[in-house]
Amino acid sequence: MAYQLYRNTTLGNSLQESLDELIQTQQITPQLALQVLLQFDKAINTALANRVRNRVNFRGSLNTYRFCDNVWTFVLNDVEFREVTDLVKVDKVKIVACDGKSESKRLKLLLLFIAFSRFLMKVLFSSDSGSNAAE
Q1: Which residue from 15, 43, 49, 68 puts its CA 20 to 30 A from 99's CA?
Q2: DSSP one-letter string for 100-126
Q3: Superfamily assignment of 55-98 in CATH?
Q4: What are phi and psi of 73, to 5 degrees?
Q5: Is 26 helix (H, G, I), strand (E, B) or coil?
Q6: What is the model's pTM?
Q7: pLDDT by residue (tens digit) across 4-47?
C-alpha cells in the first residue's frame, strides 16, 4: 500500500476536486474515484522514489521529533534550504518521513535513527549539565 501523504499537495487536491465534480455530475462512481486516488498514491510515490534526482541541503534547529507507526515527524525552526545557488529561509518546517524501502532496510534505518536520537540526547543533556555547572 502506498502512502497517502501527497493527496494534500496542490496536485492531489486538484485531482480530488476534479473527481468530486465528476461524482456530483454522475460521470463516474465513488468507487472509481477511490481507485483513481489509490493509483495516484502509487504513481506519485514511485515517481518521487525513482525519477527525482535533485538534492536539497537544509539546516535548522530541531524543535521536536517523533517516531510513531513507522513515520518520523520533525519540527525545525529557523531553517535554511540550499540547492546549488538558491537559498530559502523559513521560520518553521514540519517534515513527515515515511520509509518506502524493504523491511530489512527499514530495520537498518530505524537503528540509525535510534543511534542518532541517542547522540542528540547526549549532546543536549551534556550541554545542559555543562551550562548548569558554569552557573
Answers
A1: 15
A2: -S-HHHHHHHHHHHHHHHHHHHHHHHH
A3: Transcription factor IIA (TFIIA), beta-barrel domain (2.30.18.10)
A4: -125, 125
A5: coil
A6: 0.53
A7: 777 888 888 999 999 999 999 999 999 999 999 999 988 888 88
